[in-house]
Amino acid sequence: MVVRNQQNDEVIELVEDGLRRNLRRLIPPDRAVLLAVSGGPDSMTLLSALTRLPGRSGTRFEAATIDHQLRPESASETELVARTCARLGVTHHVRIAPPAKGGIEAGARIARYEALHSIRRKRGLDFLVTAHTASDQAETLLMRLSRGSALTGARAIREHRDDQVLRPMLFLTRSDVERYVAALGLEVARDAMNDDPRFLRTRIRREVLPVFNAATGGVERALSRFAALAAEDDGELQRQAVAALHRCRWPDGSLEAIALVSLPRSIARRVLALWLSEHDVELDAELIEEGLNAARNRSVTTLPGDRVLICTDGRVNVATAPPRLHATS
Which residues does the annotation say bind ATP (predicted)? Predict the structure, then answer.
């Protein structure tokens, strides 16, 4: 039940007007989307707000819940979403998707997006829409910066990904979402894993961001804006790198060493990363720097998988490591 007062009206207007504007900007007319709805406050806000928009903002949508079966409560959370969708007249899909190999967070994320995209394609839907907020953006940015990420990592959560994933709620903070949930009296699920201090994201959310917010009066939107600007800058640098790779590449696929090392360092790193990716080389920042040094010094550096990056006769190539390097790599 909606309790009408000025504060509630303000947050309802903030969420729904902002969401309507972003959907019109991000989604062309007559397109259909799949909403990723876990039952938590963010995704239930997305689901509720979309159903409340006049004419549903001209967008046809369905919802999906992915159950990783990591917690006993997951079944009841899925049922909550199913019940809510039935009441709102929204087609709802459920998939069981245990986490992929790797850490719990990363494995669950991989399995979740694979399942969501599978549903989207089978249903003939154009976009996948998630409920990431500016708070999620700030947490992701700080996590990546703490690990020494470059500009590509600093772009954090992109509003529109190449795989047709849209994030129209990046203008909202978690506080905005909680106020909207309270204003409409929404029934939502609370995932205890979001409070588990074993995860870096949780520690940033509970320990780091409150300090920043207390010192600045609210840092999440500022960090989110920085990430959006970083994404624009990163995109431009990447376009320049693609063009530079074309200029540096010989017909046999090798790179011209002088052309590579004469590029601005920021572009040269990206050119080498693009080229090594074509050779299925697992990349990290240290390897890229070693590769550029090898090109500059006309030398050799080892690569994963018993291979080497070698610069001879002014050309950079990837080759099988000789037996001596096999033994020492």
Answer: 38-43
